[in-house]
Amino acid sequence: MISICIPIYNFNVINLVNELSNQVSQLNVPSEIILIDDCSHNKFKKINETVCKTKVYIQLEKNIGRAAIRNLFLEYTNYQNLLFLDCDAIINSPNFLSNYVVALQQYPNQLICGGRIYPKTPPKQNEMLRWKYGIQKESKPVEIRSQQPNKSFMTNNFVINKAVFEILKFDERLIGYGHEDTLFGFELKKRNITIKHINNPILNGDLESNETYLAETEKAIDNLIRILKFTNHDKSFIQDVELLRVYYKFYSLKSIVKAAFVMSKPFIKYNLTKGYINLYLFDFYKLGTLAIKMDAKS
Q1: In the chain, at which residue ranges do the beta strands (DSSP E only) sit?
Q2: Strand-pair partners of 204
Q3: d(Cα 101, Cα 160) in Å, to the nearest integer?
Q4: Which of 221, 212, 242 is nearest to 129 (CA)?
């Protein structure tokens, strides 16, 4: 009935696989765990081999990226429902898999998202940016996610029917970090495929450092600009993405935004990397970065 698909990149998945294995053994439906390593460093391969070798485990010789690796699971899965989990997920409910089985019985053939939460205890200062952003922007209850179901799509914890996924794959032109889920959610919306949100979250188990997350944010903006070109600047896509919507709303003031950002960037970056987090400043950092990159790529 369900194939659990876990793409791995430079992360220890022993606890995740062990917990899922325990829950699989208690299910009364056919299930399997598939793991594909996207050319991780050797130390992670050695750590993970101890638990992964008892499952379907594929090690890639070349990194193919976040979109392509998810599509690759189609070649190895045997069941009609594919549950995708990020490798840093922490399963914090003993009923996690059984909750999905119940949901699939209630909503057959629908794409189902379980959600994501973050630890309630604040992390170290040098991990505060990812935590605070996740708490305020991503860790949303099912009632909120359901209000704009396709806009709330994230790749870290969802089930999709294999036949649907074979038709609508992740766009493999997106090789770098970020926004493959944004584009996928938009494509679902275009095809009138509505996402069903349920209360079955995973706990985010890996908080990047402030510096790393800021660098990844800039990479994600590069991908967002690529998607704009893929969609021919589709107006409905722009409306679905808050950063793009704000950018075009203040497009006539772009020169002022850029100038203000250039002058304030060292101050904002210093505060964000040191863990003095103001999400309004983070939003402005993204807006200024987008304005500069849009001009550079035009």
Answers
A1: 2-8, 31-37, 56-59, 81-85, 89-90, 111-113, 116-117, 157-161, 195-197, 202-204
A2: 89
A3: 12
A4: 212
Q: Residues 140-158: pLDDT tens digits?
A: 889 988 888 877 688 899 9
Residue 140 exposure: Cα atoms within 13 Å on the Cβ side: 17
Instruction: List b or e across 52-75, with b for residues whose CB sees 16 or more CB atoms inside 10 angstroms.
Output: beebbbbebeeebbbbbbbebbee
DSSP state of 234: -
Residue found by looking up tokens 């922007």 in the block: 137
CA gap 29, 3 in Å, rounded: 11
Tell me the CA distances in angstroms from 276 to 120, 155, 204, 210, one per residue in order. Answer: 18, 29, 21, 10
Q: What is the per-residue pLDDT across 40-75, written as a single tens digit (0 to 9) for each?
A: 999 999 999 989 888 899 999 998 988 899 999 999
The helix (H) or strand (E) run that includes residue 296 is: helix 279-297
User: Rounded to an integer, what distance in angstroms lies between the CA atom of residue 68 and that of residue 116?
Assistant: 23
